[in-house]
Design a protein that fits this description.
Length: 265
């Protein structure tokens, strides 16, 4: 199966920049989008053979996620589930009133053999004014995917808004306390991996310097002054079935480019 994840930074704008051609060319089983910046009914975009699922932010023109899939799921869950209980005796509750679930940041599809979690992780923002909330989010998200992982393997994809290691951004020294490269954010990503998950691209391409996001300023993409902040992270025990990971830097339409995972599922 082929999975694609792409932060489109406004789907309506991206549609005007050859999104539909890119979608069809990539020919994925699952196409996960972040930062759609849409409300229900604002865009009628369908593709033959695909069903789509959408999670909209309450705030207009902000955040939002979507998944197009060729495979009918057993269940669809909207929002970041709250984990109740401890150890092996845990239940996941999906509460639309949760403070984490007003921005349309998570969609989960359940299949016989796996969960697919599409996520748009909050940015710590300028002057790190949302860093404390980001830390709460990262802990809640880790607990959520750990709970899913107790049932079956998990594939997490999306804009995780962190460059994990120095290889994952062009200028690590000058970005040490900038959003997306703080010790706190990197530490939370390390904690996620330590809880039984794998950064698929870095595992398969340990030395490759490839980015997935470039600022619109200072001709950053032209100069390849970028960050790798878009990921496929999966349960460690799924890795033997992972056959490839790629970053499609040749595809434009957003300040991010699509990232890919292939696996035998």
């Amino acid at each position: 199966m082929k999975f694609i994840s792409w932060n489109v930074n406004g789907l309506r704008a991206c549609v005007g920049k050859d999104f539909e051609k890119s979608f069809l060319d990539l020919d994925a089983d699952f196409f996960c989008l972040q930062e759609t910046k849409m409300q229900s009914g604002q865009l009628d975009l369908s593709f033959p053979g695909y069903t789509s699922y959408w999670n909209y932010a309450e705030k207009k023109g902000y955040s939002g996620t979507a998944i197009y899939t060729r495979h009918e799921p057993l269940a669809v869950y909207y929002g970041l589930g709250t984990v109740v209980g401890s150890g092996d005796d845990v239940t996941v509750v999906y509460d639309s009133e949760s403070p984490h679930n007003h921005e349309g940041r998570v969609i989960t599809l359940e299949y016989d053999g796996f969960f697919l979690v599409n996520v748009y992780v909050p940015n710590a923002q300028d002057e790190l004014r949302r860093l404390d909330y980001r830390m709460e989010w990262d802990d809640a998200f880790r607990r959520y995917v750990e709970a899913l992982d107790r049932k079956k393997v998990v594939i997490v994809c999306g804009d995780m808004n962190v460059a994990h290691n120095e290889i994952d951004l062009k200028n690590p020294k000058t970005n040490r306390r900038n959003p997306g490269f703080t010790d706190e954010e990197r530490g939370k990503f390390s904690a996620l991996l330590s809880s039984g998950f794998v950064d698929t691209f870095r595992t398969l391409h340990p030395e490759d310097v490839v980015y997935s996001w470039w600022s619109y300023r200072f001709r950053a993409r032209e100069k390849n002054t970028g960050w790798r902040i878009d990921y496929f992270v999966c349960s460690q025990r799924l890795m033997p079935k992972v056959t490839g990971a790629a970053i499609h830097t040749q595809i434009f339409g957003s300040d991010h480019c699509p990232v890919e995972l292939t696996a035998e599922l």
